[in-house]
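Run folding on both entries below.
>entry_1
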Amino acid sequence: MLFAASLVVVAAIVMAPLLIVLGRHAARGRRDSAMALYRAQLRELERDSAEGRLDERERTAARLEIERRLLAEAEAQEPPMRPGRVSAALVLLLAIPLAGGLLYLVRGQPQMPPEPYAKVAAQAKREQAQADALIARLRARLATLDPHTEQARVGYVLLGNAEAAQGQDAAAAAAWRTALAVRFEPNLAVEIVAAVLRSGQHLRPADVRALRRALAEAPANVPWRAAAAAALKAAGG
């Protein structure tokens, strides 16, 4: 109860200045519109005079009248808001935080356990378990294959992809190295280097040689060329 009341008081204090701002804005808006209209009339008067539709006497008289109205509008004080408008605006501004506080008292449940978060956490845990089980099955399957075959190469590429998706960059690089030993692919060599750098480890001499070969064999317009060249330079290759 005390917490809800505090919210209502704070909301009312924060929103109260809006009443003053709205009132001043309304008054300034009317005065600014009038002054803009008079300035536009002055510009139109000058155009009519330049085009010969007014003689000098008519132009002077009209200009003096417009300037008088413009000066009077500029010197006029901002009219205060009418009491009726002040009351209506004040009631509206106070009704918003009061309605929010009443709604919180009726429907709010500050002691409610974090069930939505628990569901999200449980779902994330299930997904992680499924990913771990998939990686374990894939590893078990690869253990039965000749690592030098094309089938094994494809499997190790998939294993590296799964490890990288879980943030296991060092393990992903190890799997991709096995696949790269079967058949060289420039893109895969670059992926290995990127995974090693993300894991915070140092590049192996074989990684540097593979990166150099990837730059030599890949097309000139591959998107990773500049980044690969920078990595090679940083590795002293």
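>entry_2
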Amino acid sequence: MLTRRTLLGLLSATTLLAVVPAAGAVERRPFDRAAFDAAVAAGGPVLVDVNAPWCSTCRAQGKVLGKLFKSRGYKGYQVFVVDYDSEKDVMRSFGATQRSTLIVFSGGSERGRLVGDTRAGSIEALLAKGL
């Protein structure tokens, strides 16, 4: 049985995932271990976004990411969204304990992370570590 919170979370997540790709050229998709592992093994830039649809900090980060992903230099990124409310096991596998955590991978390994930071300059510096 779906609880009200779960239903609202799924509705918000669906809305967020539908809006953000239109804002930029980079597709945000729900976390999938096989797809993530393949993307990291390929060596290209990968962003893991630990996100909660009800989180204002996550929304602020999403707006910054949307603007940055419109720029030509960040179009190669693959973005995987980890749902804070329902994917605690995935969060643990990344050592992430909080929502609004952004983790960048490149060349097969983690290059950097931010937690709770919504400043455009900080997020841009993090993304640059993946290029």
